[in-house]
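ARCHIVE CARD
Drawer: 12
Card no.: 0347
Subject: one protein chain, sequence and derived structure
Cross-reference: see card 0346
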Amino acid sequence: MVEVFITTIGDVEQSRQTTEFLTIDLPSLRFNLDMEQSGPGRAFPCGHTILRVEGIDIDSDRIIAIVNALGFRCEVLADKICR
């Protein structure tokens, strides 16, 4: 199973720290952050970072809580088009 989230994680160091915390708390899952959509002047949610989570039992609420506790917004990716 794969779940995709959008976050406000803004740089590579924050990405590394976040995936480290997630991996410690949820070791059976694989995490990948795509920084391509983030950047100055791009408002959330269309200016965002993609967090992909892969595994058998994905607890979306727990992942959102961890990312929020680290000071970032995190939501399950909605099915919409940003212009």
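Annotation on reverse: The helical segments are 12-25, 60-69. The longest helix spans residues 12-25.
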